Amino acid sequence: MSELKYKRILLKLSGEALAAEGAYGIDPSSARNIALEIKEIYEMKVETAIVIGGGNIIRGSKAAEGGIEKVTGDYMGMLATVINGLALQDSLEKLGVSTRMLTSIEMNQIAEPYVRRRAIRHLEKGRAVIFAGGTGNPFFTTDTAASLRAMEINADVIFKATNVDGIYSADPMIDSSAIKLKNLSHIDILNKGLKIMDATSISLCMDNKLPIVVFDLRKHGNISRLLLGEKIGTLVGS
Known about the structure:
CATH architecture: 3-Layer(aba) Sandwich
Number of domains: 1
Helix content: 25-40%
CATH topology: Carbamate kinase
Radius of gyration: 17 Å
Number of helices: 8
Largest sheet: 9 strands, mixed
CATH superfamily: Acetylglutamate kinase-like
Strand order of the largest sheet: 4-3-5-2-1-6-10-11-9
Structural class: alpha/beta
Number of strands: 11
Shape: globular
């Protein structure tokens, strides 16, 4: 096997990745497909942490628009990420991937509370680690949770999974003239107002010189190819 470019990664998944196309909730086949991708890199002995969103169940911002208090809506969204984490954990373990889920909000009956040293130890022992519950605080997205956890565990990179093959100058689903941008700096993302991750998460990565790779999760084997140094998607940072 070729030498791995990254030894410890944080994979950021949207909640929608677990849903069937155009639907809400959890689609078991979608969860299994993601688990198969993770199993592939697990077998490459890559230390893998995962942060998953909850948008397939509820978004705090949407709940607030519907009249629910912002803080309450955000906590509802955090709980949605725990449901998704359990679904992904189940799919991974059915494939033989040793997995631990850690939550920022304590719920000891179903997951371990987040402790940085414990998370790192799980990674060192070869377990896939799912971080659920966001940051545990309202007003922060799971993108920010991903950046925060990546820095806490000393990840080499954040792999941001999307449904397009990188960052474009405009939404390629709407604007056919949109141009794919293969390399960007963190400050480019902020200055151009590109919405691939929220500004807080990008700023955290910029301040700590943590690279981000934005790629298409739907193409089988993309994560493995990135780990082997193939240029896929868009690289943000060095």
